[in-house]
Amino acid sequence: MTVSESSAGGRAVAKAPRRASAAKWDKETPLGLVRRARRMNRTLAQAFPHVYCELDFTTPLELAVATILSAQCTDVRVNMTTPALFAKYRTAQDYATADRTELEELIRPTGFYRNKANSLIGLGQALEERFDGEVPRTLDELVTLPGIGRKTANVILGNAFDIPGITVDTHFGRLVRRWRWTSEEDPVKVEHIVGDLIERSEWTLLSHRVIFHGRRVCHARKPACGVCVLAKDCPSYGAGPTDPLIAAPLVKGPETEHLLALAGL
Ligand code: SF4
After folding, report:
1. Of all atoms in ligand 1, which is nearest to the CA of residue 239?
2. Which atom of ligand 1 lies nearest, measured to the CA of 223?
3. 242 CB under 6 A from ligand 1?
4. Ligand 1 center to residue 88 CA distance, Å?
5. In the chain, where do the E strands start and end?
6. Is 60-161 a CATH 1.10.340.30 domain?
7. How far is CA 223 from the centre of its chain?
8. Does this model's pTM top 0.90?
9. Domain-wise residue ranges, the chain
10. The architecture CATH gives domain 20-50+166-263
11. Is the beta carbon of 236 within 6 A of some atom in ligand 1?
12. Strand partners, 13
């Protein structure tokens, strides 16, 4: 996004970059892609300097439970549900021996509550039987637990244990394909390909930044291209409105003012 100081009424307005031809991206070399991907990560770091896991938790077990509940449910709704749950169920043993009806009732607002109750009881039992009641710290062990797939395992590693992990959720996959970092649909392949592009130490923060960008700016249906900090590096620039004044209202979330200021608005 470039900014023009000369504008009607003396107000600085953002001037949208011209859309690069598709041929430019077709000719990109593997090294060029690495450089562009890392540059985009640095730009996202400026756009979202305070990223975090949007699920509330204080222990690895609470994060594991919250991520299980977040399937097909918004983080906001999970965060409204977990305070009462975490107050009552504090240990793996508590979940292992839970009264099913009571547990289902507590997690009902998150949807699919019968399946989720199965996963939580199974999680508690597996942790008790195989891991002394503690959440394990490796991907291989985590994915053996009920309700925990690779995506959830990476969320737990990165956010509860500070072990770098790439979380490929729907936002992450959608955006990296839009950016031509990969055309793969398979989340595990996406994880490995992005892992080769971006420094390992950045994996967890990158995951948050990309997900933040997907939720706030680069929406599936109408991305806010006209005010997007990644515009000059994005092969999909133009997928949404490029006029900054039309794009600006599409930006959501608490960082809106900061994001629009970066875009010159
Ligand atoms: S330019 Fe548009 S498509 Fe590309 S990242 Fe930004 S909002 Fe998404």
Report:
1. 3
2. 7
3. no
4. 43
5. 2-4, 13-15
6. yes
7. 16
8. no
9. 20-50+166-263, 60-161
10. Orthogonal Bundle (1.10)
11. yes
12. 4
